[in-house]
Amino acid sequence: MGKKIFTIVALLMVLGLPVLHAQDHGNPDTLYIDSVKVYQGNKVAVNVNFYNDEPLAALEIPLHYSSPDITLDSISFAGSRVAYVANKLVAKNPATQQFVVAVIVIMEA
What does the pLDDT look like over 29-78, one tens digit per residue? Predict the structure, then answer.
């Protein structure tokens, strides 16, 4: 009986350990997007910013814009904290007005 209880407790500790590490007890992670007013034919840059308080191995941000007046021209990481990362991926789909940005930090030396 004692061996079964020990095995069950050991399994619960091993299986429960990732759940304990997954808890973020700091400030909430946040994604915020600037708002701009623009007139037809003008070009504008819109900042997309994120905040987190722990090291990241990777980041993926899927976004959708819903106005037919918007055309996504380019994405820049200049001045960002991931500007140095070589593994940055951007996939754009103008037909569905969606794009995804992914940064893989864990592969950096």
Answer: 888 888 888 787 888 888 888 888 887 788 888 888 888 878 888 888 88
Q: Please, which residues have CB within 8 angstroms of residue 108's CB and are 6 or more apart in sequence? A: 84, 85, 86, 87
Phi, psi dihedral angles at 64 (to 5 degrees): -135, 135
C-alpha–C-alpha distance, residues 55 and 105, integer Å: 9
Sheet strands side by side (includes 98-104): 58-64, 98-104, 88-93
Tell me, what's the pLDDT at 15?
A: 53
Residue 49's SS3 state is strand
Q: Which of 63, 37, 39 is nearest to 49 (CA)?
A: 63
| Residue type, position 7, single letter | T
Alpha helices in 1-109 (DSSP H): 2-22
pLDDT at 100 over 80: yes
CA distance 69 to 21: 44
